[in-house]
Amino acid sequence: MPKKDIAEFLEEIGGMDVESLVNCVCRHHLSYLGRDYGRTDLFSLYQSLAYTLRDRLVGNWIKTQRSYYNQRAKSVYYLSLEFLTGKSLASNTISLGVEKEVTEVLEKFGVTLDEAEGAEADAGLGNGGLGRLASCFLDSMASLGIPGYGYGIRYEYGIFKQAIENGEQVEAPDDWLHSGNPWEFNRKGFMFTVRLYGREEQYTHEDGSVRHRWADSAKVMAVPVDMLIPGYRNGNVINMRLWEAQPARRFNFDLFNSGDYIRSMEDAVRSQTISKVLYPNDRLSEGRELRLVQQYFFVSATIQDMMRRFMKLKLDFSELPNRAVVQLNETHPAIAIPELMRILIDEHMLNWDVAWRICRRTFAYTNHTVMPEALETWPLDMMRKVLPRHVSIIFEINRRFMEDVKSRFPGDENRLKRMSIVEDSDSPQVRMAWLAVVGSFIVNGVSALHGELIKKSIFQDFVEMYPGRFTSVTNGITPRRWLRQCNQPLSELITEKIGEDWVTDLAQLRKLEPLAEDPEFQDRWYKCKLKEKQRLVEYARSEYGLYLPADWMYDVHVKRIHEYKRQLLNVLHAVTLYCRLKKDPNSVTVPRLKIFAGKAAPGYFIAKRIIRLINSVGAVVNSDSAVNHKLRIAFMPNYRVSQAERIIPATDLSEQISLAGTEASGTGNMKFALNGALTIGTLDGANIEIMEEVGREHMFIFGMDADEVGARRHNGYNPSEIASTDQELAEALHYIGDGTFSEGDRELFRPILDTLFNGGDQYMVLADYRSYVDAQDRVDELWMDCKKWLRSSILNTAGSGHFSSDRAIMDYARNIWGVRPMKMDK
Ligand code: 26V
Description:
Cofactor: pyridoxal 5'-phosphate
CATH superfamily of the domain at 479-810: Glycogen Phosphorylase B
CATH topology of the domain at 479-810: Rossmann fold
Distance between the termini: 21 Å
Number of helices: 34
Catalytic activity: [(1->4)-alpha-D-glucosyl](n) + phosphate = [(1->4)-alpha-D-glucosyl](n-1) + alpha-D-glucose 1-phosphate
Mean pLDDT: 96
GO molecular function: glycogen phosphorylase activity; pyridoxal phosphate binding
Helix content: 40-55%
Largest sheet: 10 strands, mixed
GO biological process, one term: glycogen catabolic process
Strand content: 15-25%
Protein name: Alpha-1,4 glucan phosphorylase
Bound molecules: ligand 26V
CATH class of the domain at 479-810: Alpha Beta
């Protein structure tokens, strides 16, 4: 071993000055890419720049990991089947504090940072809010010095690419790795074996006790692939470890030897499918075996990695909860609970009670939705086939739990049925949420409202059983990516006025309040917004061939397409404006561009038809000169993190219009407010808390609240009656049905109208229509008063400090994890 310190090696790699960076870029061109640096293209330049930055991260990464070990720090294991990272070039550049230098380096090659990042593929290893939240949390853990790791799957294919053909969504595979990923380290040397299938076996241990083990299992290898996550200018670098499935090294040796080469290769291919593709559903639990295998695969590898680190400390097992805390992002990794039990009981021979106490103190569970169809359940038969030993452990957990319930609520048979982890029916199911609640020391919702709603609905019985176990932590977003990086003009203006500390202490944005009415400041605020609109115009043109007007009001609705998010309500408003304009071209005062973007789950028929409707209404509106001077509609294909970074800073009006009680939190709502958009929204999820911080008078709140929704449901809701008493609504619905937007085809949108009139309008679109349209009229009114609008816009940014993921992570750290920010070793 050389006696050199890491610092000396790093010195050889080179410094942060422009010259060192240029040299390093050229060297990587030569030695990594095997190419002449005199002949760079955009992609090779991006790659060698990424390697150059990775060189500058890895030293701090090692130092950070060593500090964890040396200080015996309690660490957070954030387990998530999804991480929606997006691109890393700009973000890492900013965190390293070399923005100026990198810009200068790229200038020498005739390229901007924006252009260089254009060559990077989005890491889209998630569906939406839940996965993006996980990525924001890693950024905050790194920036705060909270010891921890992100663990997930390195999907070869991320969330599908969406194209729009003939107005409809068409899916294509997201081959994000096809040119390699310069940010990652593949660590083949540190893989673990993961077992699957087989059977449970009883045997007598040498100490005479009867024990169980897992026999005749199949094996796959889990290879760690690490992505480095730097903190903001603090020298911390944390690890996101994503597991890749590979065939066991001596896979199916028997088949090989017997000469059945092809069949043994088939097995190898099958093991690789485990990490092949992200499931593109964000609600419906389909009960697919491959999905269960994915869950166990990454959980097993992660818990092995955690135990490896813990065993190095040579402590009693009862110390585990003082050294590690596992945060379960939804129930997707909840199989970790019986897995840790299995390891403690079967492999380390602990007795049940001791093992259970350890488990219960190690896990915490975050719930992200109240919707019953998203509650994960697994058919018992399937689970028994894939994980035979875990099923008997789950039965034992449940048996003991049922005993507890019985002694607390004697004779309450219905309660037992409701609370049983194994649902007793013709096709028994394992209820993962119940398992997660029973096996965790704390369960949290993701906004104040959501935290209360889950206590009153899905978890009511469990609250009666374990009153202290439920809490909430309001979501947050990283101010680095979602303001500092994505909105350069506004960031610079803010920093000029209040200094740069807001980047790591977002509450400081309050200091903007006194400036809200300052005409000079308002003017500069307006110009920032305009710049971002121009940037979006250019992006939409070059990426999608869309021509957007730059000086209109940008009214933006971007998120997954889902009935509960009510894109349909927004379309009804668009059609209403269309009708008004057709009758009188001067009836609408404000020129408005409605921007939509979002993916629909490939099997979600109605959501896809809603996309078709948006595009169809758009096609008619945009080409009708009686209308298109005041209203245009753009659907931006393939919504993703990097696209959101372009759209959000340019937005004037943020649409957050879910049916109250259905959106657990929302995080897009926070990103828009932070960037000075005004929200039109319902009293749902974190909208409520945004209102409390920003002030109701600076938002457009409309519609029923969650209690009113409940009452209305209870009293019988009749959508037809509403449609027949509101003339504008009736007219809008009529045009959707009569073929106005479908070249005379009256069938195309019938399924959508059917959900309203024959399906009972589950998400009460019609009930909130009038109050929504009235709120939109108030939007126009305020827009006409430019000064007032700008004041509200500034106050939205000023009031967004609470929604930093730094605040959210500190809440978790203090109230759930019991960990503190750590000082790094020198
Ligand atoms: C559920 C399922 C069910 C089984 C099939 C695959 C699958 C994939 C993802 C999910 C999670 C759905 C829950 C979810 O995404 N919730 C969103 O979480 C955000 C972060 O907390 C929150 O802001 C959104 O309001 C909430 O909808």
